[in-house]
Amino acid sequence: MPASIHHTSEPLLPRTERIGGPRSLPAPRSFGTDFRYRNLETLGEGGMGTVFDAWDPVEQRTVALKFFHCPETDPAEEARLQGRVGRPWVPAAYESGTYRDRPYFAMERVAGEPLLKMRSRMGLSDKLEVFQAICESVEAIHRSGIVHCDLNPRNLLIERRGSQWYARVIDFGIALAEAPRVARPIIGSASFMAPEQALGEIDDIDPRTDIYALGATLYATLAGRQPFRAESSAAILSKALIEEPPPLGEIHPHLPEDLVAVVERAMSKEPADRFASAKAMANALADNHCAVH
Predict the structure, then answer these.
(1) CB-based burial of residue 72 (10 Å sphere; 0-12 exposed, 13-18 middle, 19+ buried)?
(2) Which of 1, 100, 141, 162 has the greatest count of CB atoms below 10 A from its CB?
(3) What is the number of other CB atoms lying within 10 angstroms of the CB of residue 129?
């Protein structure tokens, strides 16, 4: 059963959250002198791959190196999508290849920590500012003709420089670009998945699908728990299709009603009822940020 997540000692993304995915192989356990990269240390593991901190002696720089779980993955495709968006919204994409039959690609090693870890250190004003930065990054992704399809607290890197918050989006492993699209299994993070994505309606996925995920992520950040809880990812999806999450105003009565309304609009079941763009959602959050100060 998913862990309860009222506080930071418990995860916002228990393992039962992940649904679907290709057949997988573990990342290599060791790396020989025939491999370009050196000093590999594990940074984290997601639904599609394992990411390492590594040194590139050719370019004399530190990189984040992603090994994909699925040996059939084309690493150049994720690098291409990420490169289309570019800095500062996402880490810069460098090069891709295969090592011991495991596909990988190297990208910019950026500062910051996942929202998953940062949430507990932020007050309400900071959270609103962070989400404005997140929305700006997602807007840049959409302007590039890409729908991310897996926005959640693990895939958003947050950094504070002085008094300013910055956000980068990572993990484009299941992102969708231009049509025509090929049917695929339902895959993603269950509690953050829009109904049209949960139903496998691939042609109905558009930027508003990511708006739902932004709303669900903001809900989790404010509430300290997933919008939906159940014993399996399939049961979570079933709830998300027919139920509304517990009202934010009941979990935290001190939250401004206008902010609760922003979350509810973003998480509307019907795409037409959501914000038309991430920029529009950012503007609504900016209004709430001013009211909180």
Answers:
(1) exposed
(2) 141
(3) 21
**CA distances in angstroms from 180 to 126, 176, 184, 202, listed in the order given:** 40, 10, 13, 10
Q: How many residues does the chain have?
A: 293
Token pair in block for residue 4: 């309860």
Q: How many CB atoms lie within 10 A of CB 136?
A: 16
By DSSP bridging, strand 61-68 and strand 113-114 are unpaired
Maximum separation of any 2 CA atoms in the chain, in Å: 59
- Tens-digit pLDDT profile for residues 180-235: 677 777 888 899 999 999 998 888 999 999 999 999 999 999 999 999 998 888 89
Instruction: Tell me how far CA of residue 165 lies from CA of 26, 88, 136, 181, 220, in angstroms.
Output: 34, 13, 12, 35, 19
Cα–Cα distance between 288 and 290 in angstroms, integer?
Answer: 5
Is residue 171 part of the annotated active site? The answer reads no
For 169, phi and psi rounded to 5 degrees? Answer: -100, 135
Taking the C-alpha atoms of residue 16 and residue 221, their distance in angstroms, rounded to an integer, is 19
Burial classification of residue 182, based on how many CB atoms lie within 10 Å of its CB (0-12 exposed, 13-18 middle, 19 or more buried)? exposed
Task: State the DSSP code for 202.
Answer: G
The C-alpha atoms of residue 293 and residue 291 are separated, in whole angstroms, by 6
- Token representation of residue 248: 């934010």
Active-site residue, from 56, 101, 126, 150:
150
The answer to whether 235 and 17 have CB atoms below 8 angstroms apart is no
